[in-house]
Amino acid sequence: MLILPAIDPVALALGPLQIRWYALTYLFGFAMAWWLGTRRAARPDSGWTPQQLGDLITNGMLGVILGGRIGYVLFYDLAGVLADPLKIVRVWEGGMSFHGGFLGVLVAVAWYARSVGKDLRDVLDFVAPLTPLGLGAGRLGNFINGELWGRPTDVAWATVFPQDPSQLPRHPSQLYQFFLEAVVLFVVLWWFSSTPRPRFAVGGLFCLGYGLQRFAIEFFRQPDAQLNFVMFDWMTRGQQLSIPMIVAGVAILVWAYRQPARGV
Fold this sequence. Notes:
Helix content is about 60%, strand content about 5%.
């Protein structure tokens, strides 16, 4: 059993300015997306310029932050925000939703693709392999913050989080997600997109891959206290929101492989 020491969520304090570890993980994720994107854009047949890549990453950042926060309010804490509307702007108190961020990125990327005359499916295929490392970095931020911990367990690597009032040993589900998102999903998507695939196949695989791993991990993750189980006395909100991603991923892949093969 591992007893996790209390880690100061503030990485650096400069007077009233506080830089938190969680914010740094987001910055790391965006930096990795830009770095990987420059490698992908450097291919002679990529169809991307450095300026286009920079604009795409900027739009993606806005989509992640705004979508993630709005999604958290709508999916996880609507009652709390209705009771205290200012809560929506107190982002330092926590509260970001992957599924909300995902929808936010879709909107931002769709707007970008239309503004530069690119096919949305091609843009999503380009973006999909750039995202898993950032997602994994966010899970490390959750672990450092001692939030979104797992369910009680007696496995040898069970972790006691100082922020947990019960002080029960729990699954370090944040690290499970880090492994599946930043390692497994990244390797699969980077390999899959390294050779020509049908249009939209990479985007479809991202939806399917993320949805499957998130659905599975939720069996080890403690349900959100304000919601508990939302269906069947076992399904969490995260699983509920992942089902459409799984269905969409399968449908997109089936559609894509009925089209002529092309480069990503």
